[in-house]
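Deliverable D5.2: sample structural annotation.
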Amino acid sequence: MPKPKKPENENSAAAKKKNTKTPATPAPPEAESSLVNLHNSADIESVYAEDSGLSEAEQFEKFVEDEERQSQIDAGLSEIYHDENGNVFDVKTMEMKKGHGPVFLFFRSVGVLAVLAFIGWFGYRFYLAKQAEQPSSVQLVIAGESEVLAGKEVTYAINYKNLDQIAMENLNIDVKLPDNFILSSTEPAGNIATTTWKVDRLDSKRSDQIIIKGRLLGEVGQNAIVLANMTYKPENFSSNFTREASFNTKVTGLGLDLTFDYPSTALLGDEVIASIKYKAQEENYLNGFRISIDPIDNVEFLNNAAATGTAGSSWQIAQASTTEQVQDIRLRFKTKASEKQDVLLVFDYTIDGQKYYTFLKKPMTFEVVDRNLNLNLIMNGSQKDQGVDFGQTLNYSITYANKGETNMKDIVIMANLESDFLDWPTLSDKSNGQVGNGKITWNKDQIPGLADLAPGNEGVIDFTIKVAPAGEIDPAKNYQIKSFARFS
């Protein structure tokens, strides 16, 4: 018996799926078909199955729209999960970074601009600083005489020059003069009290100078250093820079010939005369100076016609000439402070009578004797040290005097002559002293007056001896004759 047929309308969808192909449907517009990617017929059938309430044309259009949307999603995901080489990222190992907001980006931009501005500002300052600090940019030099005689007028030129391409402003030049310099004038005037000068502007490649004049005093060999310090500011620049210069002048002479003649021993309470002989050389600038001695507790200075100051402790020399002159200084030791005592002579110079500049210090050393016998040794008419020649005759005199209040008995006087260059066979002694081991001794047997010397009595012992002739120079020998006298 034939099976009954199922109603067509109930099984049409299933029949179409099993026994028939998909009925042809009108082709979609060309523009739309280009955007659609049909995967397979099963997908289409599923869409139809879900939207069976729509017509086939409507179902197809809906399917196309869904496919287009899915394609766009897949493309976006593919772009996200692939690198620039097309490789897929490993999502498990990806690091997620938090993005920065607009506030952060704003401040980052401001920071970058600040750094760039600082680099530009620093570079500008560095460039100008290098320009201003180059050794050749600003020059400061002092010119003058390197050697002078004491008292001579000296001229110093402070030269400054701008060698740069930019102008220099607010120049301040400070000059420090040595203590032994007597300032007389400057050009330009400036501030003489502080020796400073101010210059508002020095254009590029321009130069100028400051002239300083004065007299230089000082001891022989003393150095006088002039220092100059200059500060300046390059144009359109806020920082100041510094240049320094110095110049040294040495005192090489006094322009005077000075000799000092005084006894090596001084008897307590007795007057001592120290003679200072002076003569001007051909070139001399000390036309008036002072000799002074600082107060000494145990020394009394005796007034004389040429003395000025307290107790005759200073003497003014009006003018030195080419003819030798003598200034005597009389003094007395009141007490004995030590076996040997120095009396310091100070030579100085002044212009205004207020400030004095020292150019020589000469100590006189005395052996202070507190005995009653005053004994002096004189050689060739002088008590001071002096030079002699080979073969020269030395004339000695020993003076002795009893300055006490009682008689002195059995006096023995001895002269010591220590030298390798005395010709002893040439000794001539009218008193016939005993000779031996470089010594000559006199007692009452040679000079009867030494047996009993009354107060106020005195005497002289004269003798001569020659210096040996010049021979071969021997560095091991002492080319000196040391002479001294003593008594007992």
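Annotation notes: The chain has five helices and 29 strands. Helices lie at 12-18, 30-33, 41-50, 56-80, 102-133.
The annotation will be released with the project's public dataset once the embargo ends.
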